[in-house]
Structure formats: C-alpha cells, structure tokens
Specification:
binds zinc ion, about 20% helix, alpha+beta, about 80 residues, 3-stranded antiparallel beta sheet, Acetone carboxylase
Length: about 80
C-alpha cells in the first residue's frame, strides 16, 4: 500500500475541504511585482478569500486548480 495521494487542501482557516481554486496574489510591500503567492480555496471559500485579498489590492488571479497545474507556474505570462 502506497501513501494516499495528497490532494491540496483549502487555505481557509479550519477548512479541510479539497481545493478547487488557486488564488494568485502579491503584496507589493513584501514581494517583487512578478512574484506570486498562492492560496488554495474550495468552492465555498473562493469568494471569501478572494475578497480578503481583493480589498487589500493583493489579488492578481483566480484560476481553477486543474488549469493552474496544467499551465504550470510563472513561465507563461497572461
Ligand atoms: Zn474551504
């Protein structure tokens, strides 16, 4: 028996649901402009987390996890 596949979990506090969305964000006070931090979100928390980042002006992108993974990170602008 191998280890169970590690499915990515939602980043919301206390939530253990499988992540469906990737929220790409950047804090200009901490990060260079091209740097992307990512949070993961389930369907339920996507709006909550994106709003949290959005009001601070940090949110750059919201992408489905499957798309994020299939496109890779960073090498493709746009
Ligand atoms: Zn969640």
């Amino acid at each position: 028996m191998g280890p169970a596949p590690d499915s990515p979990m939602c980043s919301a506090k206390g939530c253990r649901a499988d992540a469906v969305w990737v929220l790409a964000w950047n804090n200009p006070k901490l990060h260079t402009p091209e740097r992307r931090k990512t949070w993961l979100a389930c369907e339920k928390h996507r709006e909550h987390l994106s709003k949290f980042l959005g009001v601070r002006g940090f949110l750059k992108d919201v992408v489905r996890l499957e798309d994020w993974e299939s496109h890779g990170t960073g090498s493709h602008a746009g």
